[in-house]
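Researcher: I'm comparing several assemblies side by side, and this is the next one on my list. It has 542 residues spread over two chains. Same procedure as the others: predict the full complex and return the structure.
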Amino acid sequence: MSSMILKTEGLAKEFFLHEQGKTIPSCTNVDLEAHEGELTAVTGQTGVGKSTVLKCIYRSYLPSMGRILYYPAHGGRIDLAVASDNLVLELRRREIAFVTQFLHCLPRRSTIDVVAEPLVARGIPRTDAREQAAVTLAALDVPERLWSIPPATFSGGEKQRVNLARGIVQRPRLLLLDEPTASLDNETTERVVQLIGSIKAEGVAMIAIFHQPDLVRRLADRVIRLFPPAPAAMTMGETWP
Amino acid sequence: MTMQTEMTDEAVVASGAAGTPVPETGQKILAVRDLTKIFGPGCGECLASTGPLADTNVCPRCGSIIALAEVGFNLYAGEILGIIGESGSGKSTVVKTLYFDLSPTGGEAVFHHSDMSFNLFTLNAAQRRWLRNHRMGMVYQNPHLGLNFSVSAGGNIAERLLVCELYHYGKIRTLVRELLSRTEVPPGRMDERPGGFSGGMQQRVQIAKALATRPPLLFLDEITTGLDLSVQARILDLILEIQREFMTAMIVVTHDLGVIRLLAERTIVMKHGRIIEAGLTDQIIEDPQHPYTQRLVASAL
């Protein structure tokens, strides 16, 4: 059996908006597992907090409840919900990568450098990092003439592939994917599916959100379905029937 | 005392020019505890009667201004820490006390570098000057604070090398030329005074000057404020390259969330002289906890 990389227990997130004095529940009681060389798909209708789960794992959101147990490469166990900022940063550099729906990068930097960046941050020489970036960009069908241009002016689909390339090039132990194929055509989606399949075979654990049910069926080894948070009545103190 | 011996060591400059040993990540380089700065007479109620809850940094009893109240944080080797807050929040005062531009009213800051520890606020004037010249760098929002406008751009940088006891004219010019081209200032203009340079170029001369001794610790105080966007992008790019190349730890003070997002991995949010929130930068921006931070993020363009 493949080894477990991450497990959430009773994960919940709610937002408190001070200005309105309101609590907005997002996800509740999420239990999921991610295993080496497997893909865990998070499904559910819009607004059930699928992205929230990924952001809590990456610690872009501070979880409100529950534990996020991560089993690092060197052994032991880390609860990402309460780990120190510096430990989380170290894991982000070495082991956990996140492909979000939006590309945030320095203006003026060429696409190939944007993709190579996480490798350079790990101390890999720039020329080697660029080589690996080129391989990944080619695998994702990003035309070579675009590599030397900053991605700021790219189309949605091109930006998305650059973002994906930046996550995949790292070969992290755990890769979080938030709708990685949302704005891609069928042919390019097929490329992404192949690439995800091949990094799975390399042992990368993934937790992913997909738009298309078809992709879940093809790629997921585990599926977690989220349901909308309980109606407001429940938070008023009434008990669930 | 080991510090004394190193202070007179001429090798410092040589190694500064050739590249100081790269510190390891995860090593604490600066530990700040209870840093407090009060402008005015101060009284027993200053700290208790000011702050985010009282919504003021002026003591109602004695009228003193509480610029910093018990501020504490750690900085690790090679990391960029952002400090964000509105004007008057005390964010610049943090770096000014650490760079000895202002003396604090209370608190402690310990700077660790190559097996030595310096308790910053207990050092004498000579020791402070030595640290400032050899181990720290500062880039001010206002280039007039960081540069001497009556000498040439190259002269400004040379001055910093001279205090580090590099006296060879030819070597100085070579090093200055390298530093200027590194920061994208045409080296051909090294003999001109900075007054004739554009604002962005003045900032890059300041950065070159701050980097002259390859300090492990750099303070950047609103350095892109007031510059146009294309120049801003080049300077941010340059700063990240410098961080990668020299593993320089930096404290970046700004009111611009965009600058923080691109530069800093961790961020501190300040208001009325207090740290009201600290965390990973993406968490501060996407899931701010404090009412003030929520308002700040919600009002960003």
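Model: For your comparison table: Chain B touches chain A at residues 25-26, 76, 79, 233-234, 236-237, 240, 244, 261-262, 265-266, 278-280, 282-283, 286-287, 289-291, 294-295, 298 (CB under 8 Å).
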